[in-house]
Amino acid sequence: MISEDIILRIKEENDIVDVISDDVKLQRGGTNYKGLCPFHGEKTPSFTVSREKQIYKCFGCGEAGNVITYIMKTKNRSFPEACNYLADRVGIEIKEFRKDKDVNYEKKKRLYKLNTEAARLFYYNLRKNTNAQKYFINRGINEKTLKKFGLGFSNDSWNNLLNAMKGKGFSELDLLEAGLISKSEKGTYYDKFRNRIIFPVFDVKGNVIGFGGRVLDDSLPKYLNSPETLLFKKGTNLYGLNFAIKGKAIRERKIVIVEGYMDFLSIQQSGITNVAASLGTAFTTEQAKLLKRYVDVVILCFDSDEAGKKAAARSIEILKEIGFEIKILRIPDGKDPDEFLIKHSTEEFQLLLDNAWSLIEYRIIMEGDKYNLKTQDGKLKFLKATAKILSKASPIEQEIYVKKISHKTGISEQRFYDEINNVLRFENKNKNIRNENGKNSQNLYLEPAYLKAEKSLINLMLKKEFYYEIMEKINKEEFNVDIHISLIELLDELHENNIENKVEYIEGKTENVDVISELIRINEIDIEMVDDERKVFIENCIKEIKQHNFIERKNKLIEELKESEKNGDIDKCIKIAMEIRGIDELI
């Protein structure tokens, strides 16, 4: 566990305004700073940073925290990793902290070593297997690329890896935990990867965290990946990102994302190094957050089939939410990058990248693919769909794309502008209606009464004398939010040990960033009352929580009653009805 003093020092030496300014453009307004929230998309700044309190809060989505939680959330780091990042930032070298930063440190260290040894064996096996070598030769992969990315081969054997690693001092349990072997129903162990081309998967630091395997023939499954392990978490890493961030990706803040291993290898081999692959999984928010540490522009280069289009659509939404500039590359004739580079030069592929579609252009083209533009009905539907897209574009973009589409479809430019204006008028009308109803275009984070009551009670429970007073009147299990229950459990331990630095103590005890953020939000609630007022306030909060729980229970019973009536279970109906009546008397 990281000590409270260390956590306090890290926060004191990393000014929150300076840290957040690395990612968010902040403008001073009075004593605070404001900017666009990095946690949700918005056009009007609702993200506030306080230098005095060293905290941030968004009034649009409700996110709040301190400098450590900011790094945890925006850079996808664990609590120890975030502390480590901030310590490095200001030159704090703390040996105790480094040693204790991960409870699984020794186990991870051993698994990294095991994976490295396994990768070496696979690489050695490739050197001895001509069929495996022919596969790469036929795909145009040269010796330099094989070596650079540690490509290998798993022998057609049930125990080649198992025996080799046991010979190096690793146990069967080690191999199981690394996802390198499996256990049969009879209790025997066998190699997970057999007779497959092997692609070692690295983390951003260059450690081998897992493997991908591909068959040499058409047998199934075609691809086999490492299972989830202590090191390998699906959807949190990108294949080859560790190589991409060493050069062009960092300099230009731009990266190409492809689907498969071979696409990645072919592009890298061509000399274009700012590329990574999504490891065959649907693109995730965690992968997007990881990318955001290094780049601002993402060029998606997925297959042109339906599956590729769906993957691109999902990825676009995730990348937009995180705040990337997005471009889409569709290779001519439905080819993938690997196929294209076999017959074309690096310069030709670079030209495709330079002319990748903007997000607006891509969406217009996708709409064009849906309709028959040779018919009047098709043109009309395309006009309406395109106008919606262009209504969100800048005037310059509108002018560029209207000219292009008008030329292609024969629809006059004026028709497009008229339709765009119709869309804008309709949106403004709806916006005015929402404003008249008290719902502004900037949604505010609102919460129900029982939730406010739970937070208010926990705020008071930060003080030892109120903690025990409140816990005599309500059980922690009556709280509705899991994070609140976790906080109460931590507060019990905190008060038992008479801890003064409450926030730092809880930060050191939990790695759950949501628990820490909620604590900071709750700590900011201002409750100043005299004793008599406070007692009434506490009673009202407890009443609000209990009443909410009664209503929730009643609603659940009503559903059960309907089901029992449908099934003709009279006895159960009577029992449920009596319980509902009892709740009504309590509410």
From TrEMBL:
Gene Ontology CC annotations of this record: cytoplasm; DNA-directed RNA polymerase complex; primosome complex
GO MF: DNA binding; DNA-directed RNA polymerase activity; zinc ion binding
Class of the enzyme per the UniProt entry, highest EC level: transferase
Keywords: DNA replication, DNA-binding, DNA-directed RNA polymerase, Magnesium, Metal-binding, Nucleotidyltransferase, Primosome, Transcription, Transferase, Zinc, Zinc-finger
Catalytic activity: ssDNA + n NTP = ssDNA/pppN(pN)n-1 hybrid + (n-1) diphosphate
Enzyme Commission number: 2.7.7.101
Cofactor: Zn(2+)
ZnF (CHC2-type) intervals: 37-61
A GO biological process held by the record: DNA replication, synthesis of primer
Gene3D superfamilies in the record: 3.40.1360.10, DNA primase, catalytic core, N-terminal domain, DNAb Helicase, Chain A, Zinc finger, CHC2-type domain
CDD domains reported in the protein's UniProt record: TOPRIM_DnaG_primases
Cofactor note: Binds 1 zinc ion per monomer.
Pfam families: DnaB_bind (PF10410), DNAG_N (PF08275), Toprim_2 (PF13155), Zn_ribbon_DnaG (PF01807)
Its job: RNA polymerase that catalyzes the synthesis of short RNA molecules used as primers for DNA polymerase during DNA replication.
Domains: entry comment: Contains an N-terminal zinc-binding domain, a central core domain that contains the primase activity, and a C-terminal DnaB-binding domain.
Family label: Belongs to the DnaG primase family.
Quaternary assembly: Monomer. Interacts with DnaB.
HAMAP family: DNA_primase_DnaG
The protein's name: DNA primase
Species whose genome carries this gene: Oceanirhabdus seepicola
